[in-house]
Amino acid sequence: MKYLLVIAVVLVAFWVWRNNRQQERGQVQRQTSRPPTAPTSPVRMVACLHCGTHLPETDAVAGARGVYCNRDHLRREEPSS
């Protein structure tokens, strides 16, 4: 009787291992089947004139003398006349 139990445990373990391998293969195939995405173009980085922090140009606040990382720095460096 104990041999039947050992055989049953081995068969269940083999079945679980086999199903996990098939699922991993399916995930790898799904991942590789996606078309490659085009690389994005690099974003130009600029430095804040007040604190020197580098940030993407699209996030910068433009002033008369240059660019700043936020409106507070713009206000401090270029007070309105």
TrEMBL record:
InterPro entries membership: PP0621-like
- Specify the superkingdom: Bacteria
Entry protein name = PP0621 family protein
- Report the source organism: Hydrogenophaga bisanensis
Question: Taxonomic lineage per UniProt?
Answer: Bacteria, Pseudomonadati, Pseudomonadota, Betaproteobacteria, Burkholderiales
